[in-house]
């Protein structure tokens, strides 16, 4: 609160005071107390109670304080004995006061029968005369019970004592009253008038007297206090009578008090009598007046207008917004979604959030849209924030279920004062006891641990929920994206559909093989065809038996041509060996044969090569060759090695010089070469740094100045020419020097060869050097031959071979031929060996008993060396081996063929050719089918079920969290002051002391407990009570609550404005399309006068003085924003459709009916034309409609289809019709049925906030009446309320035919037109009558997939409605059962993206919260495995009790 300083007067206080003074005076205009008991609804005087065992009254004796006031047993009505044949002659026998007489003209033979019957009748009459008053008393009391329980906000029950009758003031009323209630026993029908727990035992009532007739108010107040503290029963004659006597004498000293049960007759002086009575009367509004007085006083004392109240006197003021974060409460965000202890829809969540941040919240709550649930959810949140809350409404009906809807742990924090009692002491007792116990035992650390644990659990569950949600989205995304697998491309559904279309071609494989999604074919198509060919090969099958016998391995016997070669080779080897018979006598033969064939071949090669080399060298013409060969063969090769080395050393430098001089350098020299070389040496040194002058011919110029070295070399210049010129430069000098050295080297080479050389010294150096090089090469050949002979000799020695005569080359060659002889002998042996081996191998097999016939034949051919016979046997063997190979191939292929397929093909191979020719394609088809099915491993319905379960677990944790926070706030030191804790402890002590409630002082102790409990009220955070109870229950003070929630605010008049004084925050819930306050009994001119007097400066005075203006109207004008609840849960769609039509759709609002129902339901609307007329002008009654309603209601009571259903009756025109129907029903309907069916009769206002299963509406207006169109807003409100009370069925009885109503805006026309429109509509409208084309899309389907699923369901006999729209979601298919429905969502391969899908998931969660059951079918799963997919759907249908057509009442014949 923004409080003003005490020194500064708030200028708005005066305006606020005048406003509440006006409201108080206006309320007094409505509160005109009756002066006599004649103004009461019903009075049951105790002096008239029958003296019968069924009637027990507390006034007859001294009752205990807790004794019941009155009990009346139900006495069954008995019919008189049947008259049978006497009936025409005795008249009506039902009047016990009139004895039936036998008619004078009756047959004489009936006289005796009459006498006998009359005896029985008199017995009945005597009993009836005694019991009839009891039934009359019971009927009156039951009627009071019905009225009081149906309208507790308007009517109250009291027991009155001390009836004052005074002629002067015209008064005849009781002075003392005590609140009572009537309890109805469902089993026995007994009615019990009982005391209600109340702080005051009795109240003194003097409001029927003018204040001037109370001469001593102080004395009267003392008596009033004594009455309140009375510790005896209100009907204790002595104690209560004494108070009545004192009161009477305080009013009139000359008056008289009589201790008499009969009510007194008014006289000139006051007279009072004990005269107890049970009274049903209109509830006094004096408490509201007192509230206004209290507020006026407090405003004057405080000098401050509370912030929440300021907008009423300052239109520009806006209550303070809460700009901070709302306190921790029951609202928990999990992954962007809000969770409360109770599930809420989007609008309800917005309401909770707005209350957190706004001081004023306005909610439009059309019928059945969950206002009570909204209030309960909001209460849970506010309690968890530690708020004190008042929930109120104009009537009890709107509040009856608020506390019951609270989660269990929250209930003890609230007290609901609703119903016929002035306060529900049991709720208060539970609350106080629980709060007291919790305050004592509370462990704040433990509570903090619980909160942390809950938050951790919520976080963990939230992560799991997110995982599941992501899994759903991933599955959906997987369904719509394009896949590539084994050559198939497209969405899963497209691939599955293609597979389904290919099933006639490839489906055979699935019946005979289990194919994994990633399995390659076990065989190629060619191999499968090959295998099938083996199975159909007759020749193969014919040879299979012999092929199974023992055979020689085909690699063992050679081919016939090879065998022929073996025979030929053996014969040729034998012949060759015979040709070399002489060499076999050579001494070295055996030694040569002893070495291996490889070594022999090398030996032969080496000997031949050596002999050939020696022969080749011997044929050369070199003079030295013969000598050299002789020396080499005889071991004298050393000299020749030295010579070769010397020649090699000379040829190398000679070759270098030849290369340096080249072929173009020509040198000539005359004279001693050594002298010339010496000159050249000196001259070369000189020319290193000098040059020689030459003449034109190239000769040096020699003169006196010529250097000495030049002069000394003159002889050199004269005798040496290089290329024809004297060598006068260093190059030519050096060329000469090289030539001279080459000349010496060549000379040395010439001398190195024995026998001389054929060349001359004058030959060109290059030729001379080439000759020497060639000769040297030949010498090296000779030397290598010698080395080879030495090497071979060593090998001979190592091999043990005799020494060869190297000087006799023929001998050497014969030695080499020994190798050939040994090879011929070995070849003969070798050539025989394969045939011997073959014979051995074949004979091993041929000797076996199970040998194939061709094997012995083959052996004989081998032994006989008969190629022709061998070829025949071999050919047969080859065939059998081939057969065996093919059989092995066949069996090998068969071993990898899937077993079931193998068995099927082997049973009839010829029939499988065409199918097996497509084996590869079929295998791919099957593997892709398995792959598609493997993509369906995530059961989306199971995932969704787990999400639902997880969310429920989150909600339970949120409930525990919120409850812990709420109780932590409730018992915190800030909430429970020292005095509050003392009050709680004192109450607990008094309860313990009371014990079982027996003993002498029990009544006083019970009174002390009640008083102590009353002091504990401040500890209770939530109070739920109608407006008229607030004055009785609470001591009014400003901002005593944090939040006030007003329900059904459209029924509350402006007198409820005071609620804004009680809290800084207001939540106003109402609906201006429902019944508003009435102006009945209000003097509107006096009201305008009061407004002029008190509100002259108020710009909205005209609104304040309107008696029909509601609190909702006021809030709508002053509050910002309007949140509208549209989720309708009460009525079936056909019923609430009328409200949409006349009240909401014109304003752009549509109530979404989310109530679940099945096909086996009552007809939602039944209109009955009666044709009656109206009696009366003011209190109009249509007797024909009365009779029709009563008759139909009785039929419904007897109809098993209506078992357990509740009934209500509404008169659409005035209350007289409703009372007439009620009176008739009270006579016809047993009390236990009345109570069990919650039967109530009234007008629209009486039923606002209530509901019944079946409603009966009486239009009242007669067929002959002048039709005045009902088009005003008040009629829209009345009809809207009346037509939205029925959950299952609404009956409308009317006398005016629809055709007689010409004004289509008339509510009667609108209602009848709607009713007959619904009745004429086909209940099965929208359902599929038969299957639709599976391959051509038809309306209203969105896809062929939907049509195919629908066809499967229709084919199974289910009732299917396609394209069913609810909320913002289109349900693809709805399967309707007798008592429930299942929505089938056909998830195809198209979507609008993840965000849109997530929105759909959120809407689907809302539908599930509303009771819808959803089942998802993925298109790919349906096409991939329709049987499994449909089995899952059918199992779900069975679980919900949805059966195919033929269920009782579902599809009539």
Automatic annotation (TrEMBL):
Molecular function via GO: 5'-3' DNA helicase activity; ATP binding; hydrolase activity
Residue ranges annotated for the DNA2/NAM7 helicase helicase domain, each copy included: 344-462
Pfam families, alphabetized: AAA_11, AAA_12, MTES_1575
Coiled-coil boundaries: 600-627
Gene3D superfamilies found in the cross-reference section: P-loop containing nucleotide triphosphate hydrolases, VSR Endonuclease
Domain DNA2/NAM7 helicase-like C-terminal: 1108-1293
Start and end residues of each stretch annotated as Disordered: 78-102
Annotated Basic and acidic residues bias: 92-102
Keywords, sorted A to Z: ATP-binding, Coiled coil, Helicase, Hydrolase, Nucleotide-binding
Domain of life: Bacteria
Chain ranges of the Restriction endonuclease type II-like domain: 1345-1437
Stored PANTHER family: DNA-BINDING PROTEIN SMUBP-2, DNA2/NAM7 HELICASE FAMILY MEMBER
Family: Belongs to the DNA2/NAM7 helicase family.
Protein name (record): AAA domain-containing protein
């Amino acid at each position: 609160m923004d409080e003003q300083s005490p020194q500064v007067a708030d200028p708005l206080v005066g305006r606020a005071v005048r406003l509440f003074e006006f409201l108080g005076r206006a309320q007094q205009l409505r509160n005109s107390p009756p002066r006599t008991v004649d103004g009461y609804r019903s009075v049951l005087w105790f002096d008239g109670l029958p003296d019968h065992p069924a009637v027990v009254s507390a006034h007859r004796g001294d009752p205990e304080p807790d004794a019941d006031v009155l009990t009346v047993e139900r006495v069954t009505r008995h019919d008189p004995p049947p008259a049978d044949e006497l009936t025409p002659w005795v008249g009506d026998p039902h009047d016990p006061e009139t004895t039936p007489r036998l008619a004078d003209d009756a047959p004489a033979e009936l006289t005796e029968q009459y006498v006998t019957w009359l005896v029985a009748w008199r017995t009945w009459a005597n009993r009836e005369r005694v019991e009839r008053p009891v039934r009359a008393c019971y009927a009156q009391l039951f009627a009071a019970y019905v009225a009081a329980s149906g309208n507790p906000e308007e009517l109250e029950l009291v027991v009155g004592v001390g009836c004052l009758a005074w002629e002067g003031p015209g008064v005849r009323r009781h002075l003392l009253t005590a609140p009572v209630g009537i309890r109805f026993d469902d089993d026995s029908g007994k009615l019990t008038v009982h005391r209600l727990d109340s702080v005051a035992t009795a109240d003194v009532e003097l409001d029927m007297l003018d204040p001037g007739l109370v001469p001593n108010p102080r004395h009267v107040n003392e008596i009033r206090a004594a009455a309140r503290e009375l510790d005896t029963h209100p009907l204790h004659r002595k104690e209560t009578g004494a108070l009545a006597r004192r009161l009477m004498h305080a009013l009139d000293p000359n008056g008289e008090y009589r201790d008499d049960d009969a009510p007194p007759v008014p006289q000139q002086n006051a007279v009072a009598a004990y005269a107890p009575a049970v009274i049903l009367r209109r509830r006094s509004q004096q408490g509201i007046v007192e509230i206004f007085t209290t507020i006026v006083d407090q405003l004057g004392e405080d000098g401050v207008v509370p912030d929440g109240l300021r907008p009423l006197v300052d239109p520009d003021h806006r209550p303070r917004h809460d700009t901070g974060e709302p306190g921790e409460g029951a609202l928990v965000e999990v992954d962007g979604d809000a969770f409360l202890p109770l599930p809420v829809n989007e609008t309800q969540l917005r309401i909770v959030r707005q209350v957190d941040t706004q001081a004023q919240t306005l909610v439009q709550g059309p019928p059945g849209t969950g206002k009570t649930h909204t209030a309960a959810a909001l209460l849970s949140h506010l309690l968890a924030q530690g708020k004190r809350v008042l929930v109120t409404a104009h009537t009890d009906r709107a509040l009856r279920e608020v506390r019951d809807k609270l989660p269990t742990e929250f209930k003890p924090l609230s007290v609901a004062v609703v119903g016929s009692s002035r306060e529900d002491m049991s709720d208060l007792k539970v609350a106080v006891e629980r709060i007291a116990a919790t305050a004592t035992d509370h462990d704040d650390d433990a509570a903090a641990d619980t909160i942390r644990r809950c938050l951790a659990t919520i976080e963990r569950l939230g992560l799991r929920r997110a995982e599941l949600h992501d899994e759903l989205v991933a599955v959906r995304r997987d369904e719509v994206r394009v896949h590539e697998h084994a050559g198939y491309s497209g969405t899963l559904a497209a691939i599955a559909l293609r597979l389904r279309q290919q099933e006639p071609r490839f489906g055979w494989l699935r019946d005979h093989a289990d194919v994994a999604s990633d399995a390659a074919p076990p065989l190629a198509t060619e191999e499968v065809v090959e295998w099938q060919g083996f199975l159909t090969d007759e020749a193969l099958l014919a040879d299979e038996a012999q092929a199974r016998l023992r055979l020689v391995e085909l690699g063992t016997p050679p081919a016939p041509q090879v065998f022929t070669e073996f025979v030929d080779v053996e014969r040729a080897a034998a012949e060759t060996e015979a040709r070399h018979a002489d060499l076999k006598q050579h001494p070295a033969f055996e030694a040569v044969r002893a070495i291996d064939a490889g070594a022999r071949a090398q030996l032969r090669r080496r000997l031949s090569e050596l002999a050939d080399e020696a022969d080749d060298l011997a044929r050369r013409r070199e003079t030295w060759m013969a000598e050299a060969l002789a020396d080499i063969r005889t071991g004298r090769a050393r000299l020749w090695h030295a010579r070769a080395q010397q020649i090699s050393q000379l040829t190398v430098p000679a070759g270098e010089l030849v290369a340096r001089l080249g072929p173009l350098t020509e040198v000539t020299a005359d004279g001693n070469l050594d002298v010339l070389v010496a000159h050249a040496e000196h001259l070369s040194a000189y020319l290193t740094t000098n040059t020689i002058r030459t003449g034109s011919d190239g000769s040096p110029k020699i003169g006196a100045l010529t250097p000495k070295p030049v002069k000394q070399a003159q002889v050199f210049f004269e005798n040496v020419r290089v290329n024809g010129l004297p060598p006068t430069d260093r190059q030519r000098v050096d060329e000469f020097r090289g030539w001279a050295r080459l000349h010496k080297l060549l000379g040395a080479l010439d001398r190195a060869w024995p026998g001389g050389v054929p060349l001359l010294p004058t030959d060109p150096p290059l030729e001379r050097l080439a000759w020497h090089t060639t000769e040297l090469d030949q010498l090296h050949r000779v030397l290598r031959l010698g080395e080879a002979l030495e090497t071979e000799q060593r090998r001979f020695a190592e091999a043990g071979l005799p020494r060869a005569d190297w000087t006799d080359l023929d001998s050497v060659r014969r030695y080499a031929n020994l190798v050939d002889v040994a090879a011929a002998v070995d070849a003969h042996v070798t050539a025989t060996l394969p045939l011997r081996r073959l014979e051995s191998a074949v004979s091993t097999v041929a000797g076996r008993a199970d040998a194939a016939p061709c094997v012995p034949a083959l052996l004989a051919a081998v032994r006989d060396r008969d190629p022709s016979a061998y070829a025949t046997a071999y050919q047969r063997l080859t065939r059998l081996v081939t057969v065996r190979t093919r059989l092995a191939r066949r069996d090998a292929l068969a071993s990898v063929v899937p077993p079931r397929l193998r068995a099927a093909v082997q049973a009839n191979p010829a029939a499988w050719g065409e199918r097996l020719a497509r084996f590869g394609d079929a295998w791919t088809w099957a593997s892709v089918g398995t792959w598609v099915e493997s993509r369906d491993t995530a059961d989306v319905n199971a995932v969704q079920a787990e999400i639902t379960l997880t969310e429920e677990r989150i909600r339970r944790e949120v409930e525990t969290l919120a409850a812990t926070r709420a109780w932590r706030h409730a018992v915190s030191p800030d909430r429970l002051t020292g005095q509050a804790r003392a009050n709680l402890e004192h109450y607990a002590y008094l309860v313990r002391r009371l014990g079982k409630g027996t003993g002498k002082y029990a009544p006083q102790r019970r009174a002390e407990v009640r008083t102590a409990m009353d002091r504990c009220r401040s500890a209770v955070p939530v109070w739920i009570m109608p407006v008229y109870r607030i004055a009785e229950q609470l001591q009014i003070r400003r901002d005593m609550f944090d939040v006030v929630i007003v329900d059904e605010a459209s029924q509350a008049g402006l007198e409820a404005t005071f609620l804004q004084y009680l809290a800084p925050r207001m939540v106003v819930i109402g609906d201006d399309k429902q019944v508003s306050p009435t102006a009945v009994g209000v003097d509107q001119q006096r009201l305008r006068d009061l407004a002029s007097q008190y509100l002259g400066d108020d710009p909205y005075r005209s609104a304040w003085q309107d008696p029909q203006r509601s609190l909702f109207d006021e809030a709508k004008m002053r509050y910002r924003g309007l949140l509208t609840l549209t989720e309708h849960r009460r009525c079936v769609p056909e019923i609430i459709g009328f409200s949409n039509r006349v009240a909401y759709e014109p304003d752009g609002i549509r109530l979404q009916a989310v109530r679940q129902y099945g096909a086996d339901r009552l007809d939602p609307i039944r209109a009955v034309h009666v044709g009656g007329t109206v009696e009366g002008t003011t209190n109009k009654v249509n007797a024909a409609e009365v009779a029709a309603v009563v008759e139909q209601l009785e039929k419904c009571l007897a109809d098993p289809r209506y078992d357990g259903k509740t009934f209500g009756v509404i008169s659409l025109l005035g209350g007289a019709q409703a009372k007439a129907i009620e009176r008739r029903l009270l006579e016809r309907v047993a009390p236990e049925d009345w109570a069990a069916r919650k039967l109530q009769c009234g007008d629209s206002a009486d039923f606002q906030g209530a509901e019944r299963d079946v409603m009966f509406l009486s239009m009242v207006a007669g067929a002959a009446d002048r039709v005045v169109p009902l088009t005003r807003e008040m009629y829209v409100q009345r009809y809207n309320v009346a037509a939205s009370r029925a959950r299952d069925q609404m009956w409308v009885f009317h006398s005016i035919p629809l055709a007689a109503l010409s004004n289509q805006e008339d509510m009667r026309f609108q209602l009848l037109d709607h009713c007959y429109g619904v009745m004429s509509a086909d209940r099965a409208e929208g359902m599929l009558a038969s299957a639709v084309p599976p391959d051509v899309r038809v309306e209203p389907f969105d896809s062929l997939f939907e049509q195919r699923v629908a066809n499967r369901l229709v084919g199974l006999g289910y009732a299917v409605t396609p394209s069913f729209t609810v909320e913002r979601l289109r349900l693809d298919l709805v399967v309707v059962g007798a008592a429930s429905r299942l929505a089938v969502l056909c998830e195809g391969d198209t979507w609008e993206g993840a965000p849109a899908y997530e929105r759909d998931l959120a809407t689907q969660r809302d539908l599930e919260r509303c009771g819808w059951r959803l089942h998802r079918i993925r298109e790919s799963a349906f096409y991939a495995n329709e049987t499994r997919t449909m089995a899952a759907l059918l199992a779900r249908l069975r679980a919900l009790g949805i059966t195919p057509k033929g269920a009782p009442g579902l599809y009539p014949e």
